[in-house]
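Protein in question reproduced for absentees:

***
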Amino acid sequence: MRYFLVAGEASGDLHASNLVKSLRTIDPEFEAKAWGGDRLQNAGATLTKHLSELAFMGFAEVAKNIRTILRNLKQCQQEILEYQPHALILVDYPGFNLRLARFAKQHGIDVYYYISPTVWAWKKNRMFQIRDNCKRLYAILPFEQDFYAKEGIEVSYEGHPLMDEILAYRSKNPQNESINKPYIALLPGSRKQEIDRMLPLLVNLAKLYPNYEWKLAGAPGLSEQHYNQYLKDSNIQLVFGQTYSLLQQARAAVVGSGTATLETALFHVPQVVIYKTSPINFFLAKQLVKVSYISLVNLIMQKPVVKELIQEELDLTKLQDAFNRIVNDTTERARLISDYRELEQLLGGGGASYRVASSIYAYALQSQSS
């Protein structure tokens, strides 16, 4: 069968690529086109638009690039109509993908939405758009099933796909417990504006601790030159494509809010979570977004497992204090590891990607034969 996937961000590209790998083992007639990143392409989908052309973050940037976004939307709609997939698989990226879902439904194309938008935080009406336009929604956070159920909407929860990725990595790269974990990992995010606002502060933090090795995980959509304007004369080494290797050997990490906070926790690395955006974006978000935490770790656990430093709270003094605790306080480090193990239990074991792919294939096969 033909599949068309749309993943507009790096984390979505990762999860979509694992779906594609599973679909290829399940469907003997598999073929797919995609809007996404390198992982989707390497998994076996034919890429027609790279996510580096799609990732616009924040109200101001979206407004500034609205013409480009609308052109992209029209182009994607046209490609979907020409390809006529048996299943359109939309991965997160709701501002763009929910418009595609409505369009596809109007043209008789079955839509499967993978990774629920954060309707529990803001834009609750999106859950009804999904209900009306999608054949099936697959959530990846354990509390989302109950949230939707209260509105009379049935969703599938098959576990979190990150467990698959990390378990697979660990099986191929068993950790040597004798390693003295010499590195401090820096993961400031995948978007240019996040890095521009937070990387100078991380450079200053690293200078305060010259006895540690510091390694920065570069985002695939950004060039080495972009990072180097901040890293010159610093003690930070820039690495690309080695995030899991870095986390497996990291003593501690400073992590931008996003999927990386969960990855860091699943590698049992003590972390501080940071986030900073433009004042206007932050003001608007405060009016619209109603959540107690910004990190996935704290959201899933429903308690402050990791320290979060957001916007004005993110300064060098507070960051240094939080960093000292996760590096030097043995009690704090032990508490974090204990909470991380509880988090793993909530997320379930491996196999989430395969279970979701199997469900999509079964629904698509049923639609094709009816």
